[in-house]
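pasting input
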Amino acid sequence: MKRTVPLLITGIVGTVLIVSVLIPPAQSLGEDFSLFFDIIAVFAFFLGGGNLFRIHLKKVFHRKEDYGFSIVTLVGFLVTLTIGLFKIGNPEGISGSITAAGSGLQTIFVSIITPLSSTMYALLAFYVASASYRAFRAKNREATILLVSAFVILLGRTPLGMMLTGWIPEQFSIFQIPNLAVWIMNSANLAGQRSILIGVGLGVVAMSLRLILGMDRTYLGSDK
Amino acid sequence: MSGIGVYISLFLIFGGLVTILVYSIKGRDVDRRIIFAFVFFATATAIYYNIEFKETPTTIVKNVFDRLESLPEGSKVLISFDFDPAMKPEVFPMANAFVRHSLVKKHKLYLMSLWPQGQALMTETIEDVIKVEFPEVVYGEDYVMLGYKAGNEGVLNVIITNFRKMYPSDAHNTNIDSIPLFDDVKSAADMDIIFPIGGGKPGPKEWILFVGDPGQVPMAPGLAAVVAPLIYPYYPRQVIGLLGGVKGAAEYESVLRSKYPRFQDVPAPALSMMGPQTLAHIVILSFIVIGNITFFMKRKKANA
């Protein structure tokens, strides 16, 4: 029973969604199932929030290593949740937009979340520079092709590329670095990406069929 | 770009790079902290002195601009804010540029998001761009904020045939049927152009697969630079053009400024970011060269 029910649900939902695409009168079935997904997603929020709360509370309770960070997480979670749920400071009131200008949630977002997230993302620039120094080395033919491509793309993504090669006559404009960068993206990259996409697409079809027909049961926690 | 400070800073940065280059000929590796310091000084110099460069729009960006430009007044434009604050510096300028261009052309704007953080960013656009630069536009008649909806691809799967089923109300909890903008809109297929902006999942790729292609809606994604290569296979049939990273956004801002002088004085963050990006790229390129010199010198010594 524990295995049959999930297998049946997967099979029925998968079949209905395929049928809804192939047979137009059944289209609304696909829409309804998508709405069911929306409802299930709401429960996922509860589960996710509950799980986060449980794990960090346990960590604080048992005074585990770095439990101070868990306190910050829990306080941040509870404060944001309370402000968001009750729309504290919302000029539009309880029925207004949750992100109304000046509301508590929007203030948290603009003043805390945005600068913190942007800072974390900006740190990538430093690691990219360090990694490029170590990784882009012409050790063999393949690495040299990668190195040259990276060089052209990096230059092509800045006005410097045009400054350096803008003098090349119009009839040979393909050799201007920004155009070379576009060529790499539009030809070499495109060919590679398309072949990967087609391969992935075929793989998804095969995998979906295995799931719908119950041949692949790994998502149930076991292959048997 | 003016002032003695700029030249002194640039001289120090490039002088330092040349010194390291000479140092690398001896086959010595560069400590990562030195690389970090150079990246820091290069970006800081460009930000402090507001170093800007002239941008020339590429065809792939110009295609997007020209399509929006050629649409008749009152066309329906949907912008999806599918990104979070981490991606904001890169793609938010695109969203604001699309909003400016759409409103100056008197198109109708529909704003939505598949990411929870997107709605707050949408509010920023409304407060800082729409209300400030276009005080004459009316909510519900010229633009609408549909807000965030959970469900990822499921949302797109529904709105391609029926908007009301997924969005019975807007972000302000107003019934969608009482919003004039939805009088002649049944589904996302009724849009004249869609700008999905983002770089994650769900994002532009899902928009192409679930809305653009099946609904035959012209689509022009705005993308974080790292995902732009993944969307190129859809150009030019499924997407009419695309904006990739800060560079794409800067090109769009540049062409928007040259076509509409009223935007000369409004902030153009992508154009401003191209200075730091250019200097950072030069530093990275220099270190790649230095790294290769060190590598070959070491190999030469080992073979000797």
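fyi The longest strand of chain B covers residues 76-82.
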